Predict the structure.
Amino acid sequence: MERLVANYRTLLQQVDVGGPAQSARAKAAALTKQVLDALEGLDEESSAAEAVAKLEGRVSPALLTLAEGLMVQANGLASLTAAVEGLGGLDAQYAQIERVSAHHGDNWEVLLHGHLKSDRPVMFDLTDVIELKATSEDSSVLDALAHAEAHRAMVRDFIPDRDTDGRRVDVSFATQNWQKAIRDRRRPGHFVRRHFEAMVFYYLADELRTGDVAVIGSEEYADWSEQLLPWEPVEAKLPEYLAEVGLVASGEQVPFDGRALVAQLRGRLSAAAAAADGEYPDNDELFIDPDSGVPKLKARRAEKPRRSALVLEQAIKERMPERTLLGIVARTGTGSSGGTGSGRPPATTRS
């Protein structure tokens, strides 16, 4: 969509005043006038002698066709500007492009409230009948939800950015695009209500999905922290587990230190990332997609079978003759019923 808008802007600039199309149109019109002035008194039925006499032998009658071509060209360029004028004119089109361009750079946040508008009452009603709980010490999203609920009945475009106790509402959980969307430079100390509500419900849905917010009494969105094992039995089995996964040496008696474990894991991750970065230039099978930036592996081509494998395959085929399905059924039936005892089907069965 961004490329489409940019392409349309380029086309408008071509037909704008001072642009190539307008310049060509003006030049074509001037040339056409010169030709028509020179050909005044002649028409398509005029003979070559009449044209030569009129123009004193300076040009040929083909100039009539050239004049018609210039007129068609000028009229064609005029149709472009007429189409733009029918859409409101160049200034109006440029203004619309600027409004759309403000959302470029994947800035979809300012558009979300329009999609949530019809569901807004349902979402607020839902938060009234369920009890939400933060599964960590960070409850900023739920605090922002409470602020939105406190102003849900208001219809004005702006709401204060401080709660009833005068404390500033924490929106540090939001991205920079959201930070811009919920603010208006002309109204400091306030949130843009519709964008603020869209941001709150967007992050509430995200935290429900990741488990950072739980619904009390729910199974799917339950508090995962309440399902963890008690620390006492975990602590007793921890040394054996850490040795098994290679985080400590077997038999090493070291008190568990959560900070040291996190630092160790981060060190391993950094080392693995550095090794991957160092090997990337020499890795012919790994490449980074220039459009998405996602690392991908090239499809590996199957290697040709070795000569010894081909010899083995041929030997197996020679010792394993092809059998028809009816032949296999006949041999199986003969063997199960006693048959001749030789493993070969009798002639009647064979037929």
